[in-house]
Amino acid sequence: MTKSHWSPTMPHWSPTLPGAAVTKLVLMIAVLATLLPFAARPAAAASATCTGWTDQYRPPQTINVRRTSGPAAGTVQTVDFRRYVEVVMRAEWPGYYPIETLKAGAVAVKQYGWFHTMKYRGKTAGGVCYDVIDTTTDQVYIPEKFTPQASHIRAVDLTWHISVRKIRTDGTTRLFLTGYRSGAFVACGADADGFRIYQHSAFYCGKTPTGKNFKGAGLARKGIQRVYYTNVQVVEPGRHNVLGEGEGDAAVFVPGATEGTFSARLFDGGAVGTPAVSPQNVIEMASAEVVSRTSAPVTDDRRDDLIMLARDEAGALRLDVAVAGPEGYAAPTTWWSSTEAPFTNTGMKLVAGDFDADGRADAGILIARSGRGPVQSDFYLLRSTGSGFAAPELWWTGSFNPAIGVAYAADPTGDGRADLILEMDRGTLGMRYAVVPSRNHGGGLDARVDRLDLASARRASTRTAIGDIDRDGYDDIVLVMPAATGSQIVALRSTGAALEQRVMWQSADDAIERIKIGAADIDYDGRTDVVMYEDLGEGLGTRLRTLLSDGATMTGNFWLDDVALEWSTIEPF
Predict the structure, then answer these.
(1) What is the pLDDT of residue 276?
(2) Which fold has domain 285-460?
(3) What angle, 0 to 180 degrees and rounded to 10, lies between the N-to-C axes of helices 99-116 and 199-206?
(4) 287 pLDDT exceeds 80?
């Protein structure tokens, strides 16, 4: 096993770069890279950084590495940054480690190099600047020796968009210099110090709960990060990215011109001020009845695909998927079908989320049980393979009536695995919000936990969206509700164990009867924003507004008027 060691000559870092927490570290990390066909540029005398990277949400494309070994010793190589991180993983993190541990390590390795592309490090005697050195001073970089394994490449790919940020005393957050070391073979998190990952104990964090000496914790990547880092945000930008440009996109279903079809209309979130409207993708459902539909990234590219639960004329139930691409959605194909009980029942709801933390969203079907007394439902999970859904697994049975309630797949517990959020109509008593959490090591859901009763809410006058509005790693519930005059956005912010109410936005001019909403990270800052669709009147179309979250409030912005979008017919997704 490759081990990390302390370097007695390594400097103590005091990061001052805007967006980096002030943290002192003494580190060693091993690294590799791929040489690009151009040389590193000489450093200007007053240069603040060598690579010149400034984006704190997207990693750099390259990194400049000072070589002290191998054929390139004595030079500075400009290296493809993704390949650099992949080979670092091969050098420092054994490929047999649990994938969730490798994913946590990939974020730490990436962010160390990323940080140094934003902060000037030094230059050679010949005046060529560099970001990192290929020794234990920074990260060991020997591309001639280490070739990444499939597990390293997948860990990097699944976490490329993710970063961690320290929360400062004034509430602001900053990208910080991450680190790790080998540590001792102790239980998960036993040697955690709040700012670096200890590899040996992290192995047990990601390990399935078996073994004699240390029982594995079975944690997902986000759970492992919470064990080793204190007072941080785990930032995952780009919620509801359909077109693949990173930013979240707005999207609505619109009825098709002919029976048996509908359209998906997309608005490119990459242009917040002047969004591009994509051509409508007509979805041919082949005479099927669409029972339920949603969107989530069921393939490996992190684009939100369309998932449709449909029943054909012969009574067969099936799941069709329209895969997202840069031009919109491809024609739907069937990923799963069944003619067997209980999938012949009525009263079903479809959800989609990453319940097994493998980077692909899975399909979940809630089916009401027949019988007297309180309505019970079964929840069946169909895991995504990237090109189909596996056989259904019964993950939960509990009290829920799909006929009068709404279910969502999200992560309000913040452990990196999707849970169920249940929104239940209680008539004059208001709305009840409950969570059915994923088990700590996966494989099923635990008992339903009722989190909040909102007596003032009514189903007919409440619009709901889901997303992490404050970038704390816990998915929140966003409600548009009537205010004393006009409407308001009330966030039910998850702390992991409870829901806390906060008014995020109010308007005296917007009546709830004229509003529909969707959720997407429009500005790619890791906070989910609200897209509001307002009725401009019969024949006048729909107005789109973005309400961008800063974590505490939302700021409304005009986006565009779409005169061709008939408000009464749209269904945001």
Answers:
(1) 61
(2) Methylamine Dehydrogenase; Chain H (2.130.10)
(3) 140
(4) no
